[in-house]
Amino acid sequence: MTNAAGAHMRAELTSQPETWARAAGMRAEQALLPASGARIAVVGCGTSWFMAQSYAALREAAGHGETDAFTASEFPYGRGYDAIVALTRSGTTTEVLELTERVKGRTPVVAVLGDDTSPLVDLADTVIALPFADEQSVVQTRFATTALALFRASLGEDLDAAIADAQAVLDGQASDDPALTDAEQYSFLGMGWTFGLAHEAGLKMRESSQSWTESYSSMEYRHGPIAIAAPGRITWQFGAAPEGLQAQVEATGACFVQHPIDPMAELVRVHRVALDRAVGKGLDPDQPRNLTRSVILDD
Fold this sequence. Notes:
Blueprint: H1 7-14, H2 16-24, H3 27-30, E1 40-44, H4 47-61, E2 67-71, E3 83-88, H5 94-103, E4 109-113, H6 120-123, E5 126-129, H7 142-154, H8 160-171, H9 178-181, E6 185-190, H10 194-209, E7 213-217, E8 233-237, H11 245-251, E9 255-257, H12 263-280
Parallel strand pairs: 1-2, 1-3, 3-4, 4-5, 6-7, 6-8, 8-9
Helix pairs in contact: 1-12, 2-7, 2-8, 4-7, 4-10, 8-12, 10-12
């Protein structure tokens, strides 16, 4: 293992404040997303599915219309939608391409992607390209959060605080805390739009560092999963926690982690911890075990 292990991931995750600011300013591209009042589905695979969950929760909660999120392989073709937003970094994921081909001429597809030369560009009805957020590392960091920054800005959110929080995380020494990097197990929790972030945090730590991670709705954690909490393990909350949860977790001897910052910036903290944990274990998160940049299935 060389000193360059995780070099791409490190460069990409540290660029997130810059890419978020750029996406927040893309007003013309944001206007290409389905209009307020439209009934839409947001689809993706893996990380993109989790960002779809966050966008769907935010859009519907803000009163912009019924919004569902699906992994592309589980899209319910019997339902009627005014539009589908397809989120994919590579634009080559088999399930997303197949879905787009299948609904062609019936339901307009807005593709949000990183590679603006990919096959999805020609298939989708509308394309929003974020090539400045594309990545070389197999493990996604900035593309996912930059797409979510675009979505949040399109809903009228001011991202200045989120960007400042992310920069503060990157400027600090958060990932140097042994309590964060050396845990035996991680459970990530969220509610509403942060539920998708909790899922993504679990995936990021798992694929980067081969760690034991789980993710749950914060309110559901006490309905069984809290049984896994124990000394040497972490329960990590995104956003506000339900009343009494911290005390219940700490009573198990587990470490309860929560920071009063924008939850998307808290995901950046997880990125740093995941990277440092991976490198500390002699792993290269740019080339994680059993994974490729895009899942392309044989015919």
